[in-house]
Amino acid sequence: MDATWLDSNSWLLDIAGKRILVDPWLVGSLVFGNQTWLFKGDHPQPRPIPESVDLILLSQGLEDHAHPPTLEALDRSIPVVGSASAAKVAQGLGYQEVTALNHGDTFNLDQAVTIKAVPGSPVGPTLIENGYVIRDRQTGGSLFYEPHGFHRPDLKQEGPIDVVITPVLDLALPLVGPIIRGQKGALELVDWLDPQIILPTANAGEVSYSGLLISLLKAVGGSSELQAALQEKGLSTRVFSPKVGQSMPLDILPRQVATA
Question: Is 202 a domain residue?
Fold first, then answer.
């Protein structure tokens, strides 16, 4: 299992020989509802489009997860799996094979990888987007992805999980509260899923942000703070510090089977 961070929430996962592109924002600006005064994100230069992608996996329908300019730049014949709102975005852009997963649904990629949708981030008063449990059917290796740090206690049933991709930085807005649950959410996941590795997501690697929202956001925590908290608890989970565009082999140790 390998993972490449493509900045922000974007990842390229290599699992069981399958290349899965997650929440890609690779080209163009990131803007919500064309309101550049409110929020705007930019890469210093467009990121290369990965080759030989077997699946596009989208957790949410918002632009920072289902980024229309990037989806327009990708091959429309690549299968797409996503939340219901993300699937609508892909269908609207002309993708030929789109699967919407409700919570509890599982998608099987070429009998090699399973992807199970679980409850993720709340968006508005009624919509709960997706997190994903991804498993290598041959080796049993497993990964959990949710980009905002929101998850429910019944996720414990999926553990243990080897690799967790989650925010480690708290971001909050005045009067709104947390929009990304980093430190607390990550510690919950370690407690529930016993991961060997945490990969931080939602950080700004090379991208730059501007707009009114940026001046209002309050950020707390980070990778070093989380690693220190884990060590204080006597936990062996490792917090990686990925570099944008660099593939990371995820050396996962076999789980010991408990004996009576």
Answer: yes
Residue 79 placed within a domain:
yes
CB count within 10 Å of CB 159 equals: 15
Please give the average per-residue pLDDT across 84-105, as a whole number.
Answer: 98
Q: How confident is the model at residue 257 (pLDDT cuts 50, 70, 90)?
A: low
Structure tokens at 133: 């449990």
First-to-last CA distance in the chain? 31
Annotate 66-114 with DSSP letters as a single string: S-HHHHHHS-TTS-EEE-HHHHHHHHHTT-SSEEE--TT-EEEETTTEE
Q: How far apart are CA 103 and CA 39, in angstroms?
A: 30
The three-class DSSP label of residue 212 is helix
In a domain, 254, yes or no: no
pLDDT tens for each residue of 211-254: 887 778 777 777 888 999 999 999 999 999 999 999 999 989 88
**Which helix (H) or strand (E) is 228 found in, with range?**
helix 223-232
CATH of residue 78:
3.60.15.10
How many structural domains does the chain have? 1
Number of helices and strands in the chain (H, E): 5, 20
Nearest partner of 86 among 176, 15, 12, 21, judged by Cα = 21
**Is the residue at 108 inside a domain?**
yes
- Give the domain extent around 18: 2-241
CA dist., res. 252 & res. 156, Å (int): 20
